[in-house]
Amino acid sequence: MKTVRRFSWSKFLLFLLILIILLFLILVGVYKLETGPVSSNTDPKLVTIEKGDNFFNISKKLKKQNLIKSETFYKLYIKFAKPSGLTVGDFELNEAMSTQEVVKVLSNKNNQKIDEVKLTFREGLNIPAVAKIVEEKTEISSNDFIDKITDIEFIKSLQKDYWFLTDSIFDERIYYPLEGYLFPDTYHFERKKMDAETIIKKMLDNTAEKLETYKSQIESNKYNIHELLTVASLVEQEAVTKEDRALVAGVFYNRLNSNMSLGSDVTTYYAAKKTLKDTLTKEELDDCNGYNTRCVTMKGLPVGPISNVSITSVEAAITPTNNDYYYFVADTDRKVYFNKTLSEHNQTISKLKSEGKWAA
User: What's the rounded mean pLDDT across residues 279-303?
Assistant: First the structure.
């Protein structure tokens, strides 16, 4: 006679319980591992918390600096721990800190490196963009920074110290007199001694240092320093490589020498106080306001620079590549195509459109 084994619920429940415990322990282990230190390296890394940051959206920043192992597990920790106290400022962290330790440091404003502020301005930014970065990184508002940078009495007081600040910058059509004169770079400031005036002067000091090498070439050039920086600012926006920038500068000079409109789209966007991602209206395209070189009646250079420039763009403006081109267009990869005639130029545009590479 066969023995029939009866199903044991008690054994099944015990097995299920053990399985759940094992899974829980595995998950806890993985969680601890993924929220533990990235390495044993204790070299300090500076993390800057900006206005608008919170513990969730800084995960990419922390991951990029190799301060957390996993964005997912970091966010899980934040969800469970619900930390508070994140403030604008610079903090020192290292890879040997666990997620818990990283959050603990960031949660206490007393851990801020209050002695120094780092400001980085990339090439090609205009004054409003510079002011926005200042506001994000400091207690100086964008409006206060722009008020200082458009303060004519303040700017006149700077002329005795900076040979390149000529009266050309006071043309009433110019939006920001110091546009094009603030050298893009990374700057360090003492927090307690920092104000808009200090930032502006330090950037001008850098410009003076960079331009000193080219001073004799500038003084002997057909175009004055204001005009050269204006050309450099257009070149900065229109091309990326050193070679293309020198060629683009050559095209601009060819058109100037032939009394042609420069027809540069980037001047139209600046004139309308818009970014290249915005849409221009017909009124803005046709507006003749001193900057817009697409205006049918405007010949010559814009009234002033439209951005702050790299040294390669300055070099291109001073020593362009001589060529017989009068037209250029860039594709979606920012590769620049040069043409001698309008017919060739239009053919290039048609080709880029058919290939889906027309940047416009």
Answer: 86
E runs forming strands in the chain: 45-49, 89-93, 117-120, 186-189, 327-330, 336-339
Helices (H) and strands (E) in the chain — how many of each?
15, 6
pTM of the model: 0.71
Pairing, β 117-120 against β 186-189: antiparallel
Once rounded to an integer, what is the mean pLDDT over residues 4-12? 66
CB of 269 within 8 A of CB of 280?
Answer: yes
Calpha distance 19→22 (Å, rounded): 5
User: Which string of DSSP letters, residue by residue, matches 315-327?
Assistant: HHHHSPPP----E
354 domain residue, yes or no: no
Check: CB of residue 219 under 8 Å from CB of residue 166.
no
Do 152 and 95 share a structural domain? no
Cα distance between residue 197 and residue 202, in whole Å: 9
Run of H or E residues at 337: strand 336-339
Which range marks the domain in which residue 296 is found? Answer: 127-323
The number of beta carbons lying within 10 Å of the beta carbon of residue 89 is: 19
Residue 49 within a domain: yes
Domain count within the chain: 2
